[in-house]
Amino acid sequence: MAVGNNTQRSYSIIPCFIFVELVIMAGTVLLAYYFECTDTFQVHIQGFFCQDGDLMKPYPGTEEESFITPLVLYCVLAATPTAIIFIGEISMYFIKSTRESLIAQEKTILTGECCYLNPLLRRIIRFIGVFAFGLFATDIFVNAGQVVTGHLTPYFLTVCKPNYTSTDCRAHHQFINNGNICTGDLEVIEKARRSFPSKHAALSIYSALYATMYITSTIKTKSSRLAKPVLCLGTLCTAFLTGLNRVSEYRNHCSDVIAGFILGTAVALFLGMCVVHNFKGTQGSPSKPKPEDPRGVPLMAFPRIESPLETLSAQNHSASMTEVT
Amino acid sequence: MISAKEKNKTPKDSMTLLPCFYFVELPIVASSIVSLYFLELTDLFKPAKVGFQCYDRRLSMPYVETNEELIPLLMLLSLAFAAPAASIMVGEGALYCLQSRLWGRSGGPGGAEGSINAGGCNFNSFLRRTVRFVGVHVFGLCATALVTDVIQLATGYHAPFFLTVCKPNYTLLGTSCEANPYITQDICSGADAHAILSARKTFPSQHATLSAFAAVYVSMYFNSVISDTTKLLKPVLVFAFAIAAGVCGLTQITQYRSHPVDVYSGFLIGAGIAAYLVSRGAGRAVHPPGPPDESTQGLKGCLRALTQRGQDSVYQQNKSVSTDEGPPGRLEGAPRPVARDKSSLGSLKRASVDVDLLAPRSPMGKENMVTFSNTLPRVNTPSLDDPARRHMTIHVPLDASRSKQLISEWKQKSLEGRVLGLPDEASPAHLRAPAEPMAEEEEEEDEEEEEDEEEGGPVPPSLYPTVQARPGLGPRVILPPRAAPQPLVHIPEEGAQAGAGLSPKSGAAVRAKWLMMAEKTGAAAVATQPRVANPPRLLQVIAMSKAPGGAGAKAVDTGSSSSASSDSSQYRSPSDRDSASIVTIDAHAPHH
């Protein structure tokens, strides 16, 4: 499969994978599960102003009645980058020209006696694993922000139906701090307290940006100039429209969506640049020996110059070289 | 950060490490802490007075008492200090253990940095790195808090709970709120003056800046330290700190202590300061050990500049007369190598420019070192590869008087006949260089003749063509003769000290030394021969310099038209000195 000198024996990769990566991944998934599906973390009870016009938008119905239902959204944003990475890696592996550079970048790991981990497997697992981790991490970020701030959705007062009679709400600027004057459905109210930042926006922009970074840094085809931009801009525009749809359906404020965009972008950029290093191999590009500055050397080395003639000719030489180039 | 510059070295001595730490770093941190105390805990500085609108909704939020805060300021400070410091210490400890296990104690191929000896104490890399990173972190925290406080005082924006604690008495105003909704007078009737004061300081949020600084700093530390073999460890740590910082800032919003804008701008400020400190202040420090890159290039540049400056100081100390000559030469010389000239004379011109660059350094070498260099075994020369060592060498201060003493001793003992030539040798060449070029040339030629006569047989063949070529050349192309004296410039500092110790000895010892030196010079000169090693190149150089002839110098000088006279004087001076030293050494080797 691989070139002989490209095989590397490593006994630590499998234990490292099991005891570090998988544990971290499991912890992340567990935390996301607690945030999403249980009420371990109680949302902060935020107060509001009497008759606040910003919070009295009409109630658009439950999430399932939305234009983009959560199920569709989650499936699409998890499946799209995975499919793109799968197709890209496999095609890179089977196209001959790209395969050589791929093998040059990535070593085949030989663990134990039998198991070969070839570059294809390693890259797919790495990229998709990091993507999944980032997805859950973004979810945790979003949920933490929502729980901590307890920012109210635009339709909060509509579903809350506050009982103003108990408090004096004469003045316009009266701030109501106790949240238990609501008379509406408790479950809907609970949902209406989670708004900042927008989860849809953050997750969709994260997924789209990850896929975009993969496409731009991996696919280097000269034949088709439009395929790459169309693919990238298509995914990004879809994510953008998903965020805007939240605003137009009165499910989030504009600031929530923007914060979600920023959050998802930051996570995707960090993972793409600092963790998987722009989807290059672990070895990275071979470091080129840097030519030293011809001016710096003689100055530095002055006290030990044996023969200035030599340095002079060397300088002339390098100077003429630089002149030519 | 001097300490940051002195990395990637094998264990070595540093005189400046401790004083620099005590007298530079510590006062800076201490002064920032003191000013922070005045800004934060005393009301020496009043926030700016800003008006507000009647019944402003955004300023009417409820007031959360200071002791009911979710994250009080003290807890924030301790957390923002302790969590990154602890993680940096743990990380550095793990790194040190791993490195010492993998590569042995002495720092391996990728070893971060050697240990340093300063004032008898040995600071290993773990201690240094930890102190540096934690120190930069502490300083950054102080700086961030300072910046935040200053902006808060300067803007004086109101916190969301301002109207709650202020309880403005609107009847104090002459007009009604409808007529004049913007109030600039101080009409607060609230009892809690401290709360009102704190309500005037909100932009940007202190919590947000401090937590963002700590998170970004420690994230960048993790990002550079944790290797890539584990893909998920780094993001987990980074995300954990980021979430903590985000929560810390967001609680300020939910508790109505700050507006959202304050918190977001606070995040930006803190992150910006951290990014700046990491990339500039401790930049080389945080980046992991790796192959030398631009940072080390910059380090070399620093060292070079330092070396030059040190040399200049000694130079000016010794010869205050010559100061007017040195700096201008360097100033002119510096920008010119950058300008690439594609004319036919370009290479020649550049060569002369290089001479120009080198010229101001040579008086030192001749003045202080040539005398002592040969009194010592040359074992120490390899250590000169170390630029810092060379730097130390150049700094040796005591040589001037000693060298003169030795020169005079030696003069009186061994040179009776050559009264004519000697004063020129003893006196610094650059003193007379600007004086009268014509007479100098004559003297030069005289000396060369003597040289030719006295060298006779033992002249290494590599020297011959250069010497013969010289009379035909213009004054500027004289640098080939520097071949012989160049090895003499190899003076390690130990050499100079030992030479100073030697000087009170009797004349016999001195004479013996000089004899030895002469032999060695001959050997060295022979040794230089293979290094020249490229006769066509040599000839080409000479031919090139010959081709313009005597007028060539002027032609090139008109090329760089501005400073012809000073250039020519500078070009000549090294050659004068060198020829003088050639005469000295080679003439008196057979004398004894």
Largest sheet of chain A: 3 strands, mixed
In quaternary terms, these chains amount to heterodimer
The tally of domains of chain A stands at: 1
Structural class of chain A: mainly alpha
**Helical fraction of chain B:** 55-70%
Strand content of chain B: under 5%
**Mean pLDDT over the residues of chain B:** 62
Q: Which geometry of chain A do the CA atoms define?
A: elongated
Low-pLDDT runs of 5+ residues of chain A are 282-325
Strand order of the largest sheet of chain B: 1-3-4
Low-confidence stretches of chain B: 1-10, 105-112, 283-398, 419-507, 522-592
Family (chain B): Belongs to the PA-phosphatase related phosphoesterase family.
Subcellular location (chain B): Membrane
Keywords (chain B): Glycoprotein, Membrane, Phosphoprotein, Transmembrane, Transmembrane helix
Organism (chain B): Loxodonta africana (African elephant)
Description:
Chain A has 325 residues and is mainly alpha-helical. Chain A is 58% helix and 4% strand. Chain A contains 11 helices and 5 strands, in the order E-H-E-H-H-E-E-H-H-E-H-H-H-H-H-H. Chain A is elongated, with a radius of gyration of 28 Å. Chain B has a domain at 16-47 and 70-100 and 125-158 and 201-283. Helix content of chain B is 63%, strand content 2%. Chain B has 25 helices and 5 strands. Chain B has helices at 2-5, 17-41, 73-103, 125-155, 162-166, 193-199, 206-225, 233-254, 260-281, 283-286, 294-318, 326-333, 346-358, 362-373, 387-395, 399-414, 422-426, 429-432, 437-455, 463-469, 493-502, 507-532, 535-546, 549-559, 564-588, and strands spanning 12-13, 52-53, 116-118, 121-123, 182-183. In chain B, strand 3 and strand 4 form a beta hairpin. In chain B, helix 3 packs antiparallel against helix 4, helix 8 packs antiparallel against helix 9 (260-281) and helix 14 crosses helix 16. Residues 1-10, 105-112, 283-398, 419-507 and 522-592 of chain B have low confidence and may be disordered. The chains are: A mainly alpha (325), B mainly alpha (592).
